[in-house]
Design a protein that fits this description.
By secondary structure, this protein is of the alpha/beta class. It is 46% helix and 10% strand. It is built from 25 helices and 17 strands. Helix 20 runs parallel beside helix 21.
Amino acid sequence: MINFYQQHKFMWFCLGILWLKTFVVSSLTFDLTINQFLEALIFAVNPLAFLLVVFSLGLLLKTSRQRPYYFIVSLFLTIILYSNAVYYREFTDIITLPMLVMSGNAGDLSTSVLELVNGYDMLFFLDLVVIGIFMVKKPNFLPVNKAIFKKSKSKYALIALVVATIIAGGQLDSTNKETDTFNRDQIIKNLGVYNFYVYDAYLHLTTNSQTAFADRDDWDLIEDHLDKYHVEPNAELSGVAEGMNVVMVSMESVESFVINETMENGDEITPFLNDLIEDSFYFENIYDQSGQGKTSDTEFMMSNSMYPLGRGAVFHTHAENEYAPLQRGLNDKGYFTASYHANDETFYNRNVMYQNLGYERYYDIDSYDVTEENSVGWGLKDIDFIEQSMKYLKQAPQPFFATLLTLTNHFPYELDPEDQYIDPFESESDIVSRYFPTVRYTDEAMRVMFEEMKETGLYENTIFVIYGDHYGIAESHYEELSEFVGYEITDDKARKLDRVPVIIHVPGLEGKTIDTVGGQIDVMPTLVNLLGISEDEHVMFGRDLLAEKRDDFVVQRDGSVITDEIIYTKDTCFDAVDGSVLAMESCTSAYDRGQNELIYSDKIIYGDLIRFHENSE
């Protein structure tokens, strides 16, 4: 074996450097809980399995091609490692294969590169310079030789044995594979970053084949689960908004921690929303349940009361499935349904998905006058967007269902000085500092919308649903955010920071702040009841937020579970009130329910099972 090493030193040199770099970067980047020596050992050697396979293939090449091969492999894997490190340190997530399919529509990574890149990132590529020099210079102390398979069977067999041992060792700490897919940190810990993509490719192939093999029997367990946790909607409020117009507004990246809060000088961050919730149903414990599809995921939940997928965006991967969405139910009731969004119609595949959901009209960027003066960051400023959208709402047939998607409060939170109603927060994080003025600007846009709805005479006959679509400040900025919130953001408090505002305003109804624990998936059944629509027309995992017998429960897309008593996140069970660590048994029931929710919802999407629902068209 020593002779084998001597003959292929260049390969071992490249492999060793990449292995060391992978271990160091993974250790410093990913938020992994490693408590035992065996876990640490598995984590350290996991990348070696993939590297041994890929690099040993180069031994079969001609010697003239081996050095370029090892350089190209090192470059390609470094790009994978670097891309994930940059993405993870900002968004605490891994880039999955479906995200690559989304391409530029993935949004945050592709449109704000300068915000994500640091000066020290050049260190990621220094080893490639050294490998490149050795590739060209071909020093004698780093030889390459072709290893003919017939003559080196024992060596290849030993490599295969080492690879198999490493992979098997990675499974020692694995839990249920079906639920592991919800927690990519766990997969990285057990498999390593490169093997993650092998596993992700396996998931991609198996999930794509589920539709072909699905049948009506697959629906039975799902139906039992939905029946088990179903609660009767609020009878007293059933149909109170029947026949009214519906305006649903997605407030980009607005989180609950800004509501009813002020800056150091006393300026309110959301003065209009603060006043609005006094006369509205305000749900203060609603959690962000979006996945990698961000805004589109929340649109999916608002339309279907089903969970988004853990990988990629449903809008991209399953836009042609059969669904039982809110929009189609409203179409049957004589509603005109339209979406308003000053972006390209193909962004997040909305031109395809919207048609499937039942929207009769999509007002995209071509419907708006977008100039350099009235746009910033991701596009048309929110106030201009609202004002231009109103001309279409005035002309819309009634009753109408209109969804409006704002843009200004989007990462990296850019805003022209003349549009800033409050000063930035003083923080070492530019993202945290700039976040508050853009939230304030969106709040002002909401004020403009309500004023114009009143001026046009549409207000009195319209129910308003205003919600934050997903988190705004990623965990990578929680140290700086803690300066604003005034406490250390531990894992349990981090979950509570995932809350987003949900406001349902029905003119004439008395307002009430409601503390039930729920998620964005619960908004649709709440609205369905208020509008007097039969639940039987839809398949909903959510439950009426106003229901009298509703229990407090929400599961997030990563598998975290929150109730009024416990918080389960990152393999730890917390007391929801005081944050103390509890025995895992205290979280078992809620955890199991949460896993089943995600599994069954995924099965519906991957298997296109709505077609087997007895009330589907």
